[in-house]
Amino acid sequence: MTAEAVPPVLQALSTLYSPSASSAERKQADKYLDQVRDLPDAPILGCQLAHAGSQHPTFVRHFGLGLIESTIKYKWQTPAYTDAERLAIRASVLQLCDSSASRDPPEEPMVLEKLSKIFVELAKRTWPLDWTDMDVCLRLLYGQSLAGRKLVLLIYKSLAEDVFLFEDAVAVSRKKELSTALVSVTVSTPLLNEILSRPVVESETQAMSARSDLKLLLQLVRANPENEGWIQRWSADLVALASQPVQSAELLLVATLDCIAICLGWIPLASIKESAVLERVVELCGAPSVAARLSAAECLLVLFTRNIPPTDPERTTVLWEPIFETGALEQLASAWFALHSRLSPGGTASLDLESLQQQIMLPEREYAFAKRFAHASRCLAPILKRVCTTTPPRFDFYIQVVLSLLNHPSLIISSHAVSFFFEAFKHDYFKDAPMRPFLARILDGLFAKLLIKQQLAQKQSCASQYAVSDFDSATEIDLASSSLMQRALEVVRLIVPLQPMLVFRWMEKKCGQVLAAPESVPGECHAVAISADAVLASIPPEAVRGQEPSQRELATALMGLLVSLIEFDGNRNPAVVVDQLQMIVAFSSYMDLYPDILFKCLEKFFSFAVFTLPSEQDFIKTGISISDQTRNLRRKAASSLGRIGTAMPNLLFPLLGQIMPVIERLVTTQQILRIEQTLLVEFLVAIICGADAPPAEKHALLEAVLASELRQFKSFEPFTASFDAFLEASGILSLARHDAVVKAAGKQELPADLAQRLSSASERRAAWSANFNAIWVYLRRAKHSRSAAASAAPPSVPPEIISFVLPQLLATVKCMHSLWTPQVLAQLPKDFESIMRLTRSERLALLGGQLLGNDGEEAASSAENAFDRQLDSICGWLTRMREICYQTISVFSSLGSEFYNIPDLAAHLISTLLILLPILPTFCQNAIHRLSALWRTHPAASAPQDGTAAEDRGGVDGDHDNDNDDNEDVSDEIIADKLLRGLTRAYAELWGAILTPFADKNPKRRGKADADAPAEAEPKLTFQHQDLVAFVFSNEVPLAQCFFATVSLLMSVRDTVSCKRGITMCQTLVPLLAKNPAFHGIVGRDFLVLALEATKSDAGRGEQILHEGYQKSNHNEAVALITDIYVQVRGASQIPFDTMASIPGMTADALTAFETQLAAKTTIKERHLVVRNMLQAVTGVEVSERFKKTTAFVLNMSEKRIFLDARRDLHHADIVDKETIAPVLSSFFDAHE
């Protein structure tokens, strides 16, 4: 048969790859080739086509190899082939390997790679028990030729990856045999004999498993007594290859190092010492070949990130001694210096290393090596575990290497160094004596990282160019630089308690440089300000407060610097004064040591709270605008007073009689803006609520201070008495009645009476939101400001204030929610539908950002006509009001009994917040329709199936050129993509929140449960919102249909997060719905079909999750859902059987065999494996977790991952006014003026 089949196959392949063939001809050829793949003689035909002596083109040979691979992967265990035929196929594969290894000219790389995959698939199914001499065959092939050596390296690398890294279905089923066999051939026989002679000391259960593994290992060792081990063989080859010319040995050297890298994560540590592979890899870090250096650095990274028990004695002999005692550290340092010096035009003597790093931009491959080198150097730290109490011999030299990494302009490289110091200064031993000699240099290096944004602003600097190559957008660069600065500050805070006087003197020197400079640079001043803030906040009180000479010395030095800062004039630069105020307020915890300084400080802050330039005098009365610098300075001064009030309320409490009239006079004389008034009153609230005074006195003072705000709050009550009153007061009705007039006016002026009416509504809205915001700010400050002695007591908020504010607050929320009802929207003009749309601030919040500067919603509107401007203003105001109200309710909910004891609280909340419940079906239907339409036109809907989701690569790929734009904005396409994904996920989270079950605190409980046990033996599933779930799935509302349409949508879009949420929701509901026969059709048919094929009803086509390369990361969840459905419903219903029988290619015998195998398994993992194998055998699709598991391997992790774990700095958030009032007030300061 095979001889006759060759010409038609060649003709079909020629047609398929011919540029002149028509589409119909290609389709017919492809159909014929599919039929060839199903022939029983396909592997024999494949061998004829793929043989190196066949002289066929590469694409023909590749197709022939594909025939063999398909047979091994999908038909190996089927009755289609006898044992003799399987042996013949195996012999043919070995023959192909031999012919390719001896081919001249050398074999094509794509053929070698395909051949290695075939060999690995064969090994995973037969080695070692059914193929005992596989390693012997590979050793012969390895010594045959360079091509044979490369093929063997590809085979072992791929096999080790499938066994140890990827959750390959076949490898998982034979994990014990394959992993033991790999160890037996990789490690030398003498060493394995020594390991086998060690006693088993584990627990009884572990010992039984260990003895079983060792028994198999012993059998393999005895079968191969002369084996030297691949790791020793490869290590010796490194020496030979390194001595050869780069051109001839580079590819083989890199392939050998790549194979070693995969093995270093699991081979016994003793084999690393025996083979001396660490020393040889270190030597190759200085090799002439950049590719070899990169692979060597990756080997070090794998080894240094390996999880080694701290008590393992081999940690010292395998890692400690070679690195710190035998000169390897000097070799690594030389490799790092040579990396930059070889690119220096003047040679190594012209510049020092730090200057070289700052001035020389590394080429792409050299930079890739530098990042791997930095990561590996940082990961040496795990060698120095907490049990360590001795300093390595060359530790000082190692710290100098890390310091050179710290001074590198690259965000990623320097972040590795910062992370090392963060761990080092938490170490019980190394944080003290070993690090003390380097503290000054470390502090200087950390301070330089606080200036990173200034370096990034210089587009031609190395820092900026590295950042552009590492990150996808300007937003990512900004987040990464902020993360680096935060990490640096965290390290500074760790250093301060160790040497408070030394660190303070360092900070004092930095401040002195700012004070003495003729012209202060704002960026440097800001770096000094935030470092001073970190240092002063971290000084232990016992280092300052006391009568010891060292305590008095530090206290005197603190006050001396504070006086200098207060007397500094800021070089008459408002931007510098802002940083000066931040430095002053950092001393607030120590001002009580010298009360006289407190009065100077208050005078300073109040003077700047009303600061104006000569041209801005009486700006409120005259209506002129002030500059941004003036605005920022005034707000910094006002917000800083709040921190001072929180730090020393008892010292300021007696001064309230003097402070309150000052603030009242500033308000009455119109010297401060509305937001500044809010911040100054917040200062008073902080003093009152934090002081150790009788509660009655504090409550009386608080009510007096808030009396004016509460009266204004009460004045808005008529506006929420009814929904019509709310529409009228907010200006919505006025604009709706005159929409035609306003639209007709265009850019022209409106009639005077209408303009006055709309202007009054705008002013009313501004005052309304400003007042509500002020109430929220005061309540939040009252909640957080309390005396230290009563820190465990509830916040001192009078219950009368809560009872006064809450009803009107809820009435306002109810009115705003009512705007979303279909009845109201139907009464308004069509243009008012934008009320339901996302505003700019909401879009930025969804993207993880915020509005910068003082741009408010109204100012940010780009509308050119009066109507759009008015409507944008209303939409922005509604957004702010909703956020303010929600935040205020959140503060109330944390106040304790004062809030929860309010009469009829539950009824108030339900009537207010659940007014939208009746319109949920309409909302869901609209959401499904709109999202489906958007995804239909999304570029991802027709993107090639490359198996990698954009969001799983760390973000949507953007154009790097965008980073060079002055506005540093991302493209509209990226924003649209993120918004669509964000909206889809937000909609999925809504349903996920409704269906949230009570968490099971034992994650192993479900895995240990017997799914075949009677239903009554299973734990009862309850939801956190049981009544809401019952409401959703009742027959009285169409929400159940909305849910099924939602799941179908989520599981069909090209967004892995949304798809996973849809699968998870189905998994949550299966135990509940499976108990009710009325839902068996939904679970056994609809859910099962969704798991197998998520259909896009709107698009008119289907995409199978298990066929969809984009959704590989969700294969495991899909398999789990299929398993749950079949196990829990099949015993009571025929529906799952009929559904599975409808799968193309499924036969009755195959389905019966599947059910028999599934019933015989008792663990979740075994059942999942049965389902995987069934789907793979029927559909021909490899269902695996390769995509997901590879991300756990250190070499496959994103380099940007280091920035994802950075903790946000909340320690001093309230000293920056933008953060104090974010997210609500960051976008509408101007609206309140």
UniProtKB/TrEMBL annotation:
Disordered, as annotated region: 942-969
Q: Compositionally biased, Basic and acidic residues: which spans? A: 950-961
Q: Which residues form the Importin N-terminal domain?
A: 29-99
Record-stated family:
Belongs to the exportin family.
State the name under which the record lists this protein: Karyopherin
- Source taxonomy lineage? Eukaryota, Fungi, Fungi incertae sedis, Chytridiomycota, Chytridiomycota incertae sedis
